[in-house]
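Recall the central idea of this unit: under ordinary conditions, the amino acid sequence of a chain determines the structure it adopts. In this exercise we apply that idea directly, starting from the sequence alone.
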Amino acid sequence: MILRQTLQAAIDTELRTDAFKDYTVNGLQVEGRESIGRILTGVTACQALLDEAVAWGADAVLVHHGYFWKNEPVSVTGMKRRRFATLLNNDLNLLAYHLPLDAHLTLGNNACLGRRLGFEVERCLDGELGQGLLWMGKPDTELDSRALAARLEQALGRTPLLIEGHVGTIRNVAWCTGGAQDMLPLAAEAGADAFISGEISERTTHMAREMGITYLAAGHHATERDGIQALGEWLKGRFGIEHRFVDIDNPA
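Accordingly, the structure predicted from this sequence is:
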């Protein structure tokens, strides 16, 4: 068992939470019991994940997507009331880490996706590595756009939406997990032949074609499953607590 305050302090320090300006609350979002021996991780604090936590007897839920987003309604009604009731009635802690988890040099979503895809990381295009969100690197073998899409499908278990804006060999790849499609111009200007993120907008297709850069929308959820698992395993190794990851299917 570990004290809640000790657990949170360790995560905050490792992820350098104070260095980020985010549009949600990073850290403890809902307070539960003081001692934690079992922690359940997942991408999003949806009702299905909370129900799994209760059934397993977790002391804390740790997610990438929690609550209290900028501009969301503040009233605790309907869906939000049911979620909060589950947490409070079962004395469950909810901790959430958004941008700090995307950016972390080894545990972060971008770091995990790069390793999974076999990319040699070179630099970050919007800050220093470990702080910025748009990463740049090279594939470990020669690929064209369709071969890169096939590698993504094999690695993530879902078919990416492919916009073939670049013709020929992919020498430089940029990536940012989640909903970062509007970073496409920055990736193109930096010399990327392909850019991978989770989501796509209508405008993204035209931008990729006209800028000559391949775009792959691999799924917001699918590209952000690894970071929270890595963080959970890091906590397990450091404090000897039980960790379980639950993947609530999401095609988006």
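The first strand starts at residue 2 and ends at 3.
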